[in-house]
Amino acid sequence: MEEILNYIDGAMVPLELGKTIDVYNPSNGQVYAHIPDSDTSDIEKAVQAAKNAFPKWAATSITERHDILSKIADLIDQNLDLLAEAESRDNGKPLWLSKKVDIPRGSDNMRFFANAITQFSSESHEMQGAINYTLREPLGVIGTISPWNLPLYLFTWKIAPALAAGNTVVAKPSEVTPLTAFLFSKICIEAGLPSGVLNVVHGLGHTAGAAIVEHKDVKAISFTGSTRVGKEIATIAAPEFKKLSLEMGGKNPNVIFADCDYDKMLKTTLNSSFSNQGQICLCGSRILVERSIYDRFKTDFITLTKEMKVGDPFAEGTRTGAMVSKVHMEKVLSCIKLAKDEGGKILAGGERVFPEGKEKGYYIAPTIIEGLPSDCRTNQEEIFGPVVTMMPFDSENEAIDLANDSSYGLSCTLWTNDVSRSHRVSKKIHAGIVWVNTWLHRDLRTPFGGVKNSGIGREGGFEALRFFTEPKNVCIKY
Ligand code: NAD
Q1: How far is the CA of 78 from the centre of ligand 1 (A)?
Q2: E strand segments, 209-259
Q3: Would you say 272 and 386 are in contact if contact means Cβ atoms under 8 Å apart?
Q4: 3-class secondary structure, 19
Q5: What region does 229 belong to: left with phi over 0, alpha with psi -120 to 50, or beta?
């Protein structure tokens, strides 16, 4: 049994007997680790450590911060196999995916912000008889709260810019997937990150997470997770006037016009629908297809979906691994049942899978549903699993209306070879990110986030560094 420990004030804190939470390996349904069930007293220690460390860390040179964050990135790279194995065991995602995407992105995040801070500058505004310049100062102690779907990837996405900008951090990874954040803590010790600069506290959302949000010395919260929890966090943080960045759920449209590059679209749509078992906030879960190619697409898409091998994340050839937890698997299965009750026709999947030797694991076959109206619950609520719906459309305007018919607005993918249309439609889509003829193509310099119920604020590139600093204008009369 592994012991996953809190990292507070530069040291690992031993587990307290009777104050732990079980962690499951979703590929076989077995408990394999314990984490501390941290409460307000643990958060208090972590915030105090971060508060004490702040003045010295904020005063370090940019070069010092660059060097230490880069060293952490190097250590992530050197531990790729160990971290990838840990991520797949904890989350259920195929090992090849952890190796190719999750862990490399963890080191990319650290290295990117190590460099970005060396290029970050502020504005000056000259006026008659005076000059203004803007100072961008770190905020102090930041709380970061991250989800289970891309554990190390999203954990580092927040920590890296916060630390690069000179803040200290109290971070809470998801209690469902704590392992790589624990290994990351060890890496920080090895890299020589000063004590208290980063504190990683494990535990439940409504206890440990809420205690971070409520703490008066935590100046800003960067949260990625569900819209429901984002709302709760906003309710607590807003009256305290904390800075908030909320990256939340999505119900992303994948809009396919007949004039697209069909083969490329088909291959990418398979990925955008089912990668990471559909548990990526950016997955396209509503596939809108121009009627003239609807039947052709439907036939090909069903064939390819049925060919996807569902099974052990560690087995050769696995395309779709395990759902992250029993609770989440059951939620997704209940969404499939709801779709049937709403009159949806299941074209592929639609059920739990029991791979040989892993019968106790949490697997769902990639699922395609058609025949549902846009306004039904299946098409309106986030499922966050390997489940997509298909709907035909007849005109560009209808496609735009269907795409925007959602309370969410995270991302949208368009498939068309008509240049004018790609600009025209992109402009009319209500989302934080629009991809044309590609999906999840990320440049870390670009603003990342959503509109409507998908989020407020932007992270990524200088947007993140702006969020994690407070601008102060200085006006000097000549
Ligand atoms: P979740 O909201 O249940 O949990 C996210 C984190 O918040 C966890 O660490 C959890 O412990 C913590 N938490 C829960 N209740 C809390 C509270 N009351 N106060 C403080 N913290 C609390 O989300 P999840 O199930 O872990 O992740 C899936 C969701 O995340 C999906 O909705 C998905 O769309 C979203 N997501 C969004 C993005 C994005 O960039 N927009 C990226 C990935 C995932």
Answers
A1: 29
A2: 218-224, 243-247, 252-256
A3: no
A4: coil
A5: alpha
Exposure on the CB side of residue 142, measured as CA atoms within 13 A: 31
Q: Which residues line ligand 1 (CB under 6 A)?
A: 145-149, 154, 172, 174-175, 205-206, 209-210, 213, 224-226, 229, 232-233, 247-250, 281, 382, 384, 410, 450, 454-455
List pLDDT tens digits, range 187-215: 999 999 999 999 999 999 999 999 999 99
- Listing from the earlier edge strand, what are the strands of the sheet with 20-25? 2-3, 30-36, 20-25
Asked whether 363 and 310 are in contact (CB, 8 A), the reply is yes
pLDDT tens-place string over residues 318-341 = 999 999 999 999 999 999 999 999
Residue 307: HSE in the Cβ half-sphere, 13 Å Cα cutoff? 8
Give the per-residue pLDDT at 200.
99
From 152, 172, 174, the mutation candidate for ligand 1 (largest count of ligand atoms within 8 A of CB) is 174
Evaluate the CA torsion angle 138, 143, 223, 244 in order and state its sign: negative
Residue 118 identity (one-letter amino acid): T
In sequence order, the β-bridge partners of residue 127 are 130
Compute CA distances 407 → 221, 359, 427, whole Å.
23, 37, 18
CA of 225 to the centre of ligand 1 (A): 2
Contacts of 397 (CB under 8 A, 6+ apart): none
pTM summary value: 0.98
